[in-house]
Design brief:
Distance between the termini: 25 Å
Structural class: mainly alpha
Shape: elongated
Radius of gyration: 19 Å
Largest sheet: none
Strand content: under 5%
Helix content: 55-70%
């Protein structure tokens, strides 16, 4: 792969990192729990908190993968499949720039 796509992927990864960071910051605000005891309200609040926690875990996981991809860019090892060591297609990296595996290895998982 040439240097130009690497620059594009770096910019794409940095933009994704910023977006996800902003989403996590918004999710970081824990919903206020009510003063009195109302089972229906408490159930709704618990469900909302659980949903937010789940989304935050997915976003955090993706953020870690993005950070890893940015490190690989700096080390010049970006775009190499973690399993087989072959080059990950630019097509796949365009769709999922933090991808660690090539199409073939992803299918085999």
């Amino acid at each position: 792969m040439t240097e130009q796509p690497f620059a594009q992927f770096k910019k794409q990864l940095e933009n994704l990192r910023k977006e996800i960071g902003e989403k996590l910051a918004k999710l970081g605000k824990v919903p206020e729990l009510g003063d009195g005891y109302d089972p229906d309200t408490e159930t709704q609040e618990s469900e909302e908190f659980s949903k937010q926690l789940s989304v935050a875990q997915v976003l955090t996981s993706r953020l870690l993968a993005i950070d890893e991809a940015l490190l690989k860019l700096n080390k010049k090892t970006y775009g190499v499949c973690k399993k087989c060591g072959k080059e990950i297609s630019a097509e796949l990296l365009t769709l999922v720039p933090e991808s660690e595996f090539c199409k073939k290895c992803k299918k085999g998982m």
